[in-house]
Amino acid sequence: MRIIDLIHKKKRGEVLSEAEIKFFIDGYVSGDIPDYQVSSLLMAICFKGMDKQETTDLTLAMVNSGDRIDLSAIDGIKVDKHSTGGVADTATLIVGPLVAAAGGKVAKMSGRGLGHTGGTLDKLESIPGFNVSQTMDRFAEIVNTCGVSVIGQTGNLVPADKKLYALRDVTGTVDNVSLIAGSVMSKKLASGSDKIVLDVKSGSGAFMTDVASAVELASMMVDIGTLAGKETHAFVTDMNQPLGNAIGNALEVREAIEILSGEHSGDLKTLSCRLAARMLILSEIFTNEEEALAEIEKVIKNGEALKRLAQMIEMQGGDPAVTSNIALLPATKKVVEVKADKSGFISSMQTYNLGMSALLLGAGRTTKDDIVDPAVGYWMKKRLGDEVKAGDVLAEFHVGDKDPAESIEIFKKAVVIGDAPASGIKLIYDIITP
Ligand code: URA
Ligand code: CA
């Protein structure tokens, strides 16, 4: 078999066989096939697509490129949660403790920020002392004790995705349904949970900008998960504005703590509760959403959810006191208010650019080796559809060592003030089940 023939075949829009897909993945991981040929094949896939069988074959070839995690040391049904990536998407930090407090088990491996999107590991590391590297034995012990643990991926989990993602990132080949499905589902299938709840983002801050392609991606992933023997449900949710109000690592941890304390509500809380309810149903702890949501409200009110977060933080080496005293989180010396230049309604947001604005402040990385400043970011004061008057505060920027001028300029362009509020925006567009 030769890779050049596969490139020609896909360029003509033909279907690749299971053996051909395995040849491409194995050859790339071993180093036998160079980046430039894989880039060419990826671009052909972006133009011509892959069908469901090819996507499933791709996913399984990727899973088989590395180790599968064994979570059998953790009692009960383990349900994983994954978002395709967004801005101010702090749901994992809220969902994990909610599910744990209601009796479920969440053993989650998360990633770092990527492009304009934040990463759960970077957020957790803003908690003084928190350690995202744990041995598998300790990981199991933490989940068995407090119901939830979030750690970084271990060395050899889907090496094919590590290589392919880095290449896609720099060759304009991220936003293809099959390549995203393969990337996400290979990691989910390898990471050992029994069932999966996906949050597929759609909108100006998501890889899939329209709802129809997000639904297509969601359906593809539900089919692959189900085929591989792991019941998978997918929410298709809005990313036409940041999900929460906080963008930046320590600020997002603070928002999660405020939600778990019952002090704060909004879309981030609503979606986190719905995702947690679905995970509890898949965990076979509840049979319907109303009962699950009632229990979730209960564990927020009685403090049990926040306690689970504190326990997890403590078991992973962090200072659990942050959950009762947010002043212990890293903070900037300087806070700058950004105000509206004119009156009107928030009619749209370029959410991708809102993520980039925070990244440029130092909340994310432009190269792999950049150091993240945990304290910087901004807190948004307005949502889509809100009426604003000239001079109203749109956001509070928490500014560190970097000059915020460019970030603020990008932010102001990205929050569009028009004559009419945004229309057609829903928090949850669809829920796809097997
Ligand atoms: N998240 C992933 O893990 N992979 C993708 O390809 C896109 C989003
Ligand atoms: Ca269905």
Describe this structure in words.
- The chain has 434 residues and is α/β, with parallel strands linked by helices.
- The protein folds into 3 domains: 3-49, Transferase, Pyrimidine Nucleoside Phosphorylase, Chain A, domain 3, CATH 1.20.970; 79-324, Nucleoside phosphorylase/phosphoribosyltransferase catalytic domain (Pyrimidine Nucleoside Phosphorylase, Chain A, domain 2, 3-Layer(aba) Sandwich), CATH 3.40.1030; 329-418, Aldehyde Oxidoreductase, domain 3.
- Helices cover 45% and strands 15% of the residues.
- It has 16 helices and 13 strands.
- It has helices at 3-11, 18-30, 35-48, 52-63, 91-101, 120-124, 136-146, 159-171, 177-190, 211-227, 249-260, 267-282, 289-301, 304-315, 351-363, 405-414, and strands at 79-83, 106-110, 148-152, 195-202, 232-238, 246-247, 334-339, 344-349, 377-380, 387-388, 393-399, 415-418, 428-432.
- The strands form 4 sheets. It has a 4-stranded mixed sheet, with helices on both faces. The protein has a 4-stranded antiparallel sheet with strand order 6-9-11-7, with helices on both faces. A 3-stranded antiparallel sheet has the order 10-8-12.
- Helix 10 links the parallel strand 4 and strand 5.
- The chain starts with a helix and ends with a strand.
- The mean pLDDT is 95.
- Residues 432-433 line the site of calcium ion.
